[in-house]
Specification:
single chain, 172 residues, alpha/beta, four-stranded parallel β-sheet, two-stranded antiparallel ribbon, 8 helices, globular
Length: 172
């Protein structure tokens, strides 16, 4: 009977949790850094580099990510087909218009450790361009990962009381 208890205890220890992360107005590198920790299982006290104890991560609103500066035009994603003359370069804007989840997916993939577990960890990453999540995934969600950066409020989202209470730097 003791082995049954140990098996149940071990299953509960290695059970995979599902986390939600909202990528709206967040830089892809910050999203990937928070995601990789959960995919590898580094947030668990039982973590070991050779054990596959990572969790599932669901990232929503990948269409609304934010780059700082002029990176939408300057950042270039390169690939090669393997054939002569097969070197392809695409800007971040072109890649984002083609597939809104591609930039976040590439960022997470490149941040994971370069070993045989990388593809297995990527299977536990679920990306959605908007905030619509399928019902079977939504019922599994346990916890929300806090956004790495605070989302600034737009000017039309402030109430008149907040605008009136805002300190004036210069009065005419």
């Amino acid at each position: 009977m003791a082995s049954y208890t140990k098996a149940a205890q071990q299953w509960a220890t290695f059970a995979r949790a599902w986390y939600l992360l909202d990528a709206k107005m967040q830089p892809p590198g910050k999203i990937a850094a928070a995601t990789v920790i959960r995919l590898e299982g580094r947030h668990k006290p039982i973590y070991h580099a050779l054990s596959d104890c990572g969790d599932h991560v669901v990232i929503i609103n990948t269409r609304h990510i934010a780059f700082s500066g002029n990176k939408w035009e300057q950042k270039v994603y390169s690939s090669h087909t393997g054939y002569p003359g097969g070197f392809k370069q695409v800007t971040a804007t072109q890649l984002h218009l083609k597939d809104p989840t591609a930039i976040v997916k590439l960022t997470v993939y490149r941040m994971l450790p370069k070993n045989l577990q990388r593809r297995t960890m990527m299977q536990r990453l679920h990306l959605f361009p908007e905030d619509v999540i399928p019902e079977d995934i939504q019922k599994n969600l346990l916890q929300e990962i806090p956004q790495p950066r605070a989302v600034p409020k737009r000017l039309d989202e402030y109430t008149p009381e907040e605008i009136a209470a805002f300190p004036k730097v210069w009065t005419p």
